[in-house]
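Researcher: I'm preparing a figure for a lab meeting and need a structural model of a single chain. I don't have an experimental structure, so a prediction will have to do for now. The sequence is pasted below. Please return the structure as tokens so I can convert it later.
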Amino acid sequence: MSPAPRVDAVRLIDFAAAVYAGAGMPEADAGLVADTLVQADLWGHQSHGVLRLGWYLDRVRNKVMNPVTKPEYAVDAGAVAVIDGHDGVGHVLTALATREAVKRAKAHGIGVVGVRNSNHFGTCMYYTRMGAHEGCVMLLTTNGGPAMAPWGGRKKIIGTNPWSVAAPAGKRPPFVVDMAATGVARGKIYLARNKGLPIPLGWAINSAGEPTTDPQEAIDGIILPMAEHKGYAIAVMVDMLSGVLTGSGFLANVHSPYKTAEKSNCGHLMIAMNIAAFQPLAQFNARMEQFIAEIKAVPTAKGYDEVFYPGEIEANNDARHRREGILFPDDTLADLRRIARETGLEARLPL
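Model: Understood. Here is the structure written out token by token.
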């Protein structure tokens, strides 16, 4: 049996963009969505990579996500804006919110942009890193479809509700935190299912309320919050910011991207803080370099060779995967081949 192929990122982006353009997305938008997916794979987060290519395609085909995004400003008030996405492409809307938040932060010191009636947008860190490269500290929150029960409850009505913070770090790659409020992102459970692997105990309980290592039972059951009640509190805080404050859906009124025939109703909140309004950017970068150097200088614990700062592992993975190509599980490769056949793009698939 021949080894799985290593896939070239540039050619994979070209294929994914062609898939979405063929579904009616403008070329620039199709390219953006493709780039977000492959970038997640480059970072080593395959739970948010081309594993999702078919899910977003099905949402367009099922007419619950409009391929042509037509944002409307419900609020446009100096440092604050609210964008109604009208069920457009989440990636396109969030990239717009990022640019708007940065622009407003440069004018006012801070920029806050809410997005309502959007769709799933991939990894939070894709967008917060964009703002970090513009000299801002960024905070992004988003809600999602039910995956978690309230602490003490046994009905899932709360999403994994991820959030991200990013900042420039001088000569180093940006400092980036990106995490779900659950113990694990739901996409990682789908990835385990695709690989035919069990999941660790503590990730989820099944529909009977029992601990499970079966990824399908976890998907059908309830994903557990990180840090017990603290993760639950963080998840509902993110839902308040992303859904209630922005005027979008919240709790069980939001539907996940895996439900490809249901309107999403998700919302996002992007905050940009212009570093130059706090201190000279060069001074901040020097302080960040010192901050990271002190973290990395801590002696390593048993079993560890190096201390990493948030965002460093992803930057290392990106460099390696761009050089060597990306390895995918068989199920993901099979799904890419299926999509290529269905769309008539087999010649563009780099496998």
